[in-house]
Amino acid sequence: MKEIKKDSNQEIILGINPAKEIIRLRPHTVKQLIINIDKSSRRINELNLLAESMSIQISEVEKSFFSQNYPNENHQGVAVLCNKRSHESEDLLDNILNQENIFLLILDHMTDPHNVGACMRSAAAAEVDAIVVPKDRSCHLTPTVRKISSGASELIPFIVVTNLSRSIRKISSAGVKVYGAKSDGTIKHTDADMRGNVAIVIGSEDKGLKELTAKTCNALISIEMPGNIDSLNASVTAGIILFEYLRQNKHAF
User: Fold this and answer.
1) Domain range enclosing 167
2) Angle between the N-to-C axes of helices 16-25 and 42-53, in degrees from 0 to 180, rounded to the nearest 10
């Protein structure tokens, strides 16, 4: 088995956790589970049993399959061939804005799939209702994002909007407090009132929040850092602020 044949509507996702979540949540989209025949562990055995219970084809391959096709990936000897998961439409955002206890993560033109995947993982852990990203000049649900998210990409809606600033204004008009993370933000993130409906906006890796995005936020917040570093990785910033929201709203959970 030198390569996996797939059509334009299919993708290959690597890693045990992503494979498990895809099989668990949408088994009807999985065409086959591919496993290194020389790999054996409790987690891989459980994955095999899960695939068998869903009547999913299991293909055992030699180690060389992964080393030749995915030499630089942390594949763990596991891959799934499945239908691509498309992003959600803007209509879902309208539905979310009609519910109670709204909690959103907005990524402002973030282009690094590793950062986007890490943000998705933190967002799923914090039980964010959805991630919102702009259509253009932004990383979407790529295989790398899915792998880095460690299965979280299957658990949280990923909404792509045509105009981010317009969508932020809509979110704010729905009674959601929109906080933009900025190194020179005037409010410490622990002092911001994150009780109730909140959206957190994280900027791109190199330029941070765009000027128009920053102006559209209700307030700009920063993380106090006593050390000699003046900024944090975008996904680290997201994780810290998301869990500050959870701390302030612990009475609601």
Assistant:
1) 90-252
2) 20
